[in-house]
Amino acid sequence: MTSPADLSVVENEAAQALFDDLIAKDSRIEPRDWMPDAYRKTLIRQISQHAHSEIIGMQPESNWITRAPSLKRKAILMAKVQDEAGHGLYLYSAAQTLGITREEMMDQLITGRARYSSIFNYTTPTWADMGAIGWLVDGAAICNQVPLCRASYGPYGRAMVRICKEESFHQRQGFEILLELMQGTEAQREMAQDAVNRWYWPSLMMFGPPDDQSPNSAQSMAWNIKRFSNDDLRQRFVGMLVPQAEVLGVTLPDPNLRFNDETGQYDMSEIDWTEFNEVLAGRGPANAERLRRRRDAHEEGAWVREAAAEYARKQAERALAASGAVA
Ligand code: BYC
Questions:
Q1: Is pTM, for the whole model, over 0.90?
Q2: CA–CA separation, 10 vs 316, rounded Å?
Q3: pLDDT tens digits for 145-177?
């Protein structure tokens, strides 16, 4: 990994020109390549936030594993939560290729210095929330993440390919939970609608602030990290939801939602950005609980990390001894 500080001015200019050329050609930047510090920092910020979101995102759903309504639902939910741990792993690994350690990232998370997606600071009081998370939260994640498969940084883009495949399954399982509830009793239909009412607006906030208040978008798009703006992806998501809501028989909780033939976009009510900012400031319904549980899990897992490190050390020692014996 070569950092700009290691090179002379002339070498830096040549390296910058090569980097600019790769971006202009829409090619990939790989860990071995020179990259500007700001590009590296932006990627570390976005990828680590994304990894944290996956790991914190395990909590709202794991809350229902012991209470899933059937063995089949329990097995599916366990597999989904496990997938999310896997996504966290791919993403932490991708971020590590940029020169930050796993320990540093974890420290930033548990000390409350790192961001993770606002959506995971909402509570899951009913089983229908598992359906709403799959349909709306994973649905939003797919809309946001499919373009990230083409992100200019190789390890990030490649990690996203696998993540998106798994997210599609997650989204369909959520849809199917809601469909089953909507075909059930009156109480089940009400529970499904209530969950959709609670998760709809927070899922729209997942795409980030409006374009004119998104400080990182322009540069991230110029670097081919982001391919679409926050508002464009939000529009695309709503367009995807409308026909699916009809199939489900649920109502999207926005009386002003309608397609505008003139603009070719959905008109919708104003998003409550005060709520979004409150959640980002750590004052959402479950921020404190999410961080507390993450901290506890980290402390309780210390012995596992120690054991794994010791095992790896012994394996390396044995491999070294064996290679010495052969030579
Ligand atoms: N929540 O300039 P902007 C999942 C921050 S996991 C919190 O537009 P950017 C799943 C933003 O970080 C889903 N913070 O930023 C897992 C920035 O703050 P800093 C997670 C937010 O980066 C388990 C500031 O606001 N997905 O799907 O250009 C179970 C200004 O924003 C949020 C990803 O992480 C938010 N919603 O665009 C189920 C995808 N929005 O860093 C499902 C990767 C904005 O300057 N990330 N902020 O202090 C991205 O695509 C982009 O980072 C974002 C934001 C679109 C989120």
A1: yes
A2: 41
A3: 999 999 999 999 999 999 999 999 999 999 999
The DSSP bridge partners found for residue 153 are: 29
Average pLDDT over residues 73-90: 97
Q: Does the beta carbon of 84 sit less than 6 angstroms from any atom of ligand 1?
A: yes
Residue 258's DSSP bridge partners are: 267
Q: Which of 94, 150, 133, 91 is nearest to 116 (CA)?
A: 91
Q: Is the CB of 121 under 6 A from ligand 1?
A: no
Probe residue for ligand 1, chosen from 46, 52, 143, 156 as the CB with the greatest number of ligand atoms within 8 Å? 46
Type of residue found at 249: G
Residue 268 is given by DSSP the state -
Atom nearest to 138 CA in ligand 1: 42
Query: Which residues, 6+ apart, have CB-to-CB distance to 70 below 8 Å?
Result: none
CA-CA distance, 286 to 282, in Å (whole number)? 9
In terms of Cα–Cα distance, which of 202, 264, 255, 213 is closest to 235? 264
> Residue 306: pLDDT above 90?
yes
